[in-house]
Amino acid sequence: MQRAVSGPALPRRARRRTGWTRPLKTSHIALAFALCLSASPALADEATNLSGSILVVGQKQRPIEIEPRGLAVSLADEQFAAINAFNTEDLMKYAPDFFVRKRYAGDSNGVPGFRGTHSAQSARTLVMVDGFVVSNFLGNSFSYSPKWGVVGPGEVEQFDIVYGPYSSRYVGNSMGGIVNITTREPQETEAFVNVQSFAQPYRQFGTDDTYWGGSVEGGVGLKQKDGPWSLRLTGRHFRNEGQPMMFYGLVQGGAAGPAVTGAVIDPAQQQAASAGTGIAGAPGTTASPIFAAQSPALITQKQGKARLGYDDGAITGELLLAYWNNIDDQHAPDCYLRDASGNPVCGDGQVTLGGINYKAAGANWSRTERDEYLLGGRIAADLGGGWSARAALSTYQIARQKAYTSNGYDSGRTGGAGKLAESGPTGWVTGDLTAERKGGIGDIALGATASFYRVDTLNTTLANWTSDAGKAFSSETYGKTRILSLWTEGALHLAPSARITAGLRFDDWRAYDGGLGRLGTTAPNIGLPVFNSYAGRHETALNPTLSGQVDLGGTLIQLSLAMATRFPTVGELFQGSLNGDGTFNADSFDPALRAERSKDANLLIGREFGRIKLTGSLFYQRVENTIFQFFGFNQNGVSISNYKNIDLTRQWGLEGIAEARDWPVQGMAIEGNIAWIDSKTLRNPSDPASQGVQFPRIPYWRVNANLRYDFTTRLQGSLGLRYASRPNTDLDGTQRGDTYGFASELFALDARMSWMATRQLRLSAGVDNITNDRAWVYHPYPQRTFLVEAGWRL
């Protein structure tokens, strides 16, 4: 259906509501195995009841907050104290076979990844704060990462991580895994303040600078002495300048321009291009001279939260309100080119370099502003007779999001023309109702969940890119999805040392009110907004889960099986994007995408040997209709992206986890893990060359480890390791390199020292990436970064 709109161009919302990898470096693998083989937290005198609990790696002081089927990790203060945590998501950086795609401190595109999850498959991870959903299922890419910013690292009490969709309680977006962040609940009157300062000396191509950042976080907690009420108020102000994320190359051709010097040739990019493994993919091609770096991202974030609690022993409740403001300023592209007078040249036209004519473009200026809110409430009560019930309702709203971008460097510098993409109000609402009975030889749980997602993005053109005054309609995309679900789980205790848990989940999914608007190109609608509406879709899914475990003389064995359905998000179905030249890309989404459907299995074996605990994991996942975002160039050389289904992908792998405490010496704790992952595209008729090739951005090897040592009761030191072998960059496995534009090997050593100067005052200093390893996830990861921190608690 099409309709022409005459008159002013108003937005719709105004009218209606290869399997190839680089070998492990010898020094890297030696260090990795040294840390892993001497590793883990289970004291000999701990009363650990293996037969009564799922395998949980990490802290054991508090129960895990999410149902731990399959591999489960629980992290708390003991682990947090050894981590340089610039942001909340850093607190998980050494978890087994896990990573967060974090490019710099304050990065709002930090997508978590489990095992064989691509670093842009954000819709395959369910993330919650105190049980309230903060996963951004409005889309599925690096732009839709969880809303980590609503929580400051100083208020986190516990991180619980579960790998895979092995509990029927959770929606199919748990196909990769589940993360729940538990914030601190006051036990008495308390207060805290944390102050950080950090610096990253950065050297890459023609960029040579030091980027600074810091934060102030604080809060107070009040607990009623003889009553059920508690209140916690927290806030954080964060500011950081992240290194440039993009580097711009000259495009050969065109007329002559001013003679310039200063361009940089990347030897690694040149080597990849000559070998036919570069982005162009043709043997004998030449890497483009780099003429500029994108402006460093100056990030300013403000976060505030109020948590009201109630607990009278029979009824517990919580009300949570969080606010997050994020501003990303990029107003200083680093121009490498110089004209004959020594003045910087940054593009928007032709230049002549070494007698060859080039076009320089892309060094835009930009500013993004966001205001976001989380409001949630939950209540739980003991109903008697072994029954309990709980209910939760929350909403996350992006009240304002405006992304201003200039049309080139000169426009950015002079306040010229540009573009504006704005969203909001947009967001989601989720609800959860559960009833459980425990006792006897069997436990049973019943529940219902609901979620609603809505997005509406308006793109306009601007005469002055810094102001939305006089904006003119360009395009608009919008749509909604919802899922209504029923589930049940039952556990049968066959013996004190054995049990079986089975579950079933029914999902009813609907996509509706989707469409796009753009300027008409044919009479009589030339230059007028024309809107296309898409037919609604409705699907259902029924997915079982089954898990069994047994304790055989201190060796715990658990086998978990599951099926899961991950329905397409609003963004994949309806949310169009802009091409690299600013025009609307009508092929960037697909309203007919099929749901992802997985079959999963996980075998765990764990045993404690005195002060050491060893855990082995074998996992398998087979996914039909994998939704993948393809990037490329059209016939005019303009960058484009689109979502398509891949018929069949498969991953399997092995994980070894070792934990030790007070071993090999008193006061030392080591947690180390190593994983081998084989993730393949098995069937993809639309691109046969990808079949049998290792899935993009999935390394064959991943190692995370952390060693802590108490030099005294007040002084602790730690050493951390993060390693991933070099993966493929593209689906066909033809793009490989260790430089900008590729996914590379990662090797980072981190260190930290903390001193309790008094009972209340802690002073810390640390460094991440000690060896200054240069790693890439297309964009550059941070280079060596220094941190100093002071923390005070009442």
TrEMBL record:
It is a multi-pass membrane protein. Coiled coil: none annotated. Gene3D superfamilies: TonB-dependent receptor, beta-barrel domain, TonB-dependent receptor, plug domain. InterPro entries: Beta-barrel_TonB (IPR000531), Beta-barrel_TonB_sf (IPR036942), Plug_dom (IPR012910), Plug_dom_sf (IPR037066), TonB-dep_rcpt-like (IPR039426). GO terms for cellular component: cell outer membrane. One of its GO terms (molecular function) is siderophore uptake transmembrane transporter activity. It is found in: Cell outer membrane. Residues 76-178 form the TonB-dependent receptor plug domain. Pfam families: Plug, TonB_dep_Rec_b-barrel. Residues 1-44 form the signal peptide. It comes from the Bacteria. One of its GO terms (biological process) is siderophore transmembrane transport. Keywords: Cell outer membrane, Ion transport, Membrane, Receptor, Signal, TonB box, Transmembrane, Transmembrane beta strand, Transport. Belongs to the TonB-dependent receptor family. This is TonB-dependent receptor. It comes from Novosphingobium flavum.
